[in-house]
């Protein structure tokens, strides 16, 4: 008797291979993907990825076809993903454009230039401070302003949120800070102003144009600001994505973040020639996102927040957790592998998931009598 396959898998199979596709092939694939009840899937997944990750390089490597961009890969990238770091080493966004723009190199180039984050510091050559006048004088570079197509009006508009008196004197921007009572405060104000974005998308430091085999152009950026990028009309929102998992979860939701975790881990391993079954990776991605937020696997994430004190102690700093157990009233139901191993109990996986008492010829046969029939 064949197992029952959820309708969504059948629909996806026919959508991919056509209505006349042999549904028996789907049954073979589905049956092969099933696991035995009580299988220690968590242990197998951890071993599968853990063993492979020990072979990864600690160095960064060049992305194929983009020798100008160094991306974090190997073990450092896996650490970023599994720790769910809020700030990653090399945030990258792959921007795909709608069909009417993707074939035009001119349109793509113009858009790529508009993405680059131009800060006030990029167009200021030097500065001067006068405590007596309580002024900061910023000397603007004409050539840089021309190159970035910026005018004094653009600068004024970008600095409008800053509540200070400012004026232009030829190629000089003069800012008056009436509340300043020291040079240190004027320098602090100057540093804050220099970091203000004048044009482009905040966080995007570079934009590289790439071409697919069919002549379609797309853009890879160093830096990410997914919510702003998706707001542009010419951007294809269905395909544009960045490698910052936390940002993706905030902008696109937890399901998108879960899929990105799985893809990033799989691709990181594939790039160094290692293959891990996708089901193991998906299991870990599911665990990291199960409560609707992205949590790491370390002491401040899944392992450190588990309800079992013995499971927490088995992962890291056991003395701390056991001392907390003494001071607080906690209940451990021993549902996990680690805490049962620590307490020398049967692990609730495999044969440990069942309690079996059989009857042979009407007589009870159990472990207590060594497997012998009771007379």
Q: What does this molecule look like?
A:
The structure is a single chain. Among the domains are: 1-34, no CATH class; 42-88 and 243-304, PTS-regulatory domain, PRD, CATH 1.10.1790; 118-199, Gyrase A, domain 2 (2-Layer Sandwich). The longest helix has 17 residues, at 254-270. Residues 58-67 have low confidence and may be disordered. The radius of gyration is 30 Å and the shape is flat. It is α+β, with helices and mostly antiparallel strands. The relative contact order is 0.12. Helix 12 (254-270) packs antiparallel against helix 13 (278-289). The protein has 17 helices and 14 strands. The strands form five sheets. The protein has a four-stranded antiparallel β-sheet with strand order 10-11-3-12. Strands 5-6-8-7 form a four-stranded antiparallel β-sheet. Strands 1-2 form a two-stranded antiparallel sheet.
CATH top level of the domain at 42-88 and 243-304 is Mainly Alpha
Largest sheet, described in full? 4 strands, antiparallel
Number of helices: 17
Q: Compute the CA-based radius of gyration.
A: 30 Å
Mean pLDDT rating: 81
Uncertain ranges: 58-67
Percent of residues in helical segments? 40-55%
Strand order within the widest sheet? Answer: 10-11-3-12
CATH fold-level name of the domain at 42-88 and 243-304: PTS-regulatory domain, PRD
Number of strands: 14
Structural class: alpha+beta
